[in-house]
Amino acid sequence: MTDCIVIGAGLIGMLSARELVNAGLRVTVLDRQQPGRESSWAGGGILSPLYPWRYSDAVNELASWSQQRYADLCQQLIDQSGIDPQWTQTGLLIADVEEPDLLDRWQSRFSVELQKVTAKQIQVIEPELGIAVAEAVWLPGVAQVRNPRLVQALRASLEQAGVKFRTECPAQAWITKGGKVSAVKTPEGDLSADAYIVASGAWSGELLAATGLQLPVEPVRGQMLLFNGPPGLVRTITLYKTRYVIPRRDGRVLVGSTLEHVGFDKQTTEEARNDLKASAYELIPALAHHAIEQHWSGLRPGSPEGIPAIGPHPHLENLFINAGHFRNGVVLGPASARLVADHVLQRDSGFIAEVYLPENIAKNI
Fold first, then answer.
1. Where would I find the H helices in the chain?
2. pTM check: above 0.70
């Protein structure tokens, strides 16, 4: 019998499964489609919240913990799977800072390596930058991963460790008895385990509603463009007026992203394409000479203040939740997985676990 069923094979679900299998549990992961094909695949892979000082300590605590461990995690995945997630320390240049007091507090609280740079220094950091700003913030320690490769590496390493994946197998309903989940209904029949984790991204709120928990997690569409440029065209991740460019090792450049409350609609739009293209040309004018290779959208699991719900269900003692990471699932993932595993395994946690309890997040409705 499986010790734990994880519902959701995105980055959060697979990292949660990794924590549990490393602790000796037998784990099965369900997904409504193929693993890692929703927001885990669609995002940019920046290992930092955008404008991190605008987020609460609850978000930054998880981000800081994960940032310190990501390089080692990626090396372990290379060794186990042969797939390189391409952890790369490109730094993050933030070209619009409007809350200097918040910035200073955040830097002090989390001991972040940060430089306030002049226009001349900005041009050295990113020579192709097209905007003129007198001062910016440079975070040289910020890294990125190529998130589609990260989820591929995770799946391969988990399968090697004995984790079973059931793809095209959505969770449809719960069977409960005596304050516990006894099985989850799926097209392949009722599946049972000692414990269950909901890590279903934007679909988590719908799945949990049947349990009586109104978790405020909803889909927020984000559209992105991918330019096919030469290696070295763009040097660093650059953020300006909520839009960003991300250089990959092979020269491709991601530009994102929109924030759209349109339910579960994943269609791309010409309006967003033109808007993102204009932002790309403003930030990096040289991109006008390179083809747009791809335009896609993904559904983020939006939540109040971006604080994820991590912990036990308030009424079903063997059901756990790891959902609602909004725009920061990649950078928060390792810490979130460690915290939910602490709950499942009844281990002491180094995090202030109460902040993330699902019933506390639900109060924000």
1. 11-22, 39-42, 57-67, 70-81, 100-110, 119-125, 147-160, 204-209, 270-283, 329-345, 358-362
2. yes
The whole-angstrom separation of Cα 206 and Cα 222 is 20
Divide the 365 residues of the chain into consecutive groups of 10 and give the mean pLDDT of each group.
95 98 98 91 96 96 98 98 98 94 95 95 96 95 97 98 97 96 96 98 95 95 97 96 96 96 97 97 97 97 95 97 97 98 95 95 72
The CA-atom distances, in angstroms, between 183 and each of 167, 206, 265 are: 18, 18, 30
What length does the chain have? Answer: 365
- The backbone torsions φ and ψ at residue 105, rounded to the nearest 5 degrees and listed phi first, read -65, -45
Could you give the CA distance from residue 331 to residue 44 in angstroms, rounded to a whole number? 11
Q: Are 157 and 21 in contact (CB under 8 A)?
A: no
Q: How far is the CA of 139 from the CAs of 68, 147, 237, in angstroms?
A: 14, 21, 10
Delineate the domains of the chain, giving CATH numbers in brackets.
Answer: 2-55+148-217+304-362 (3.50.50.60), 92-140+218-302 (3.30.9.10)
b/e sequence 201-239, b meaning 16+ C-beta within 10 Å: bbbbbebbeebebebebbbbbbbbbbbebeeebbbbbbb
DSSP E strands, 279-318: 292-302, 309-312
The Cα–Cα gap between 289 and 251 comes to: 13
Query: What is the predicted pLDDT for the residue at 365?
Result: 47
- Residue 22 tokens read as 């490393």
Do 119 and 129 form a contact (C-beta atoms < 8 A)? no
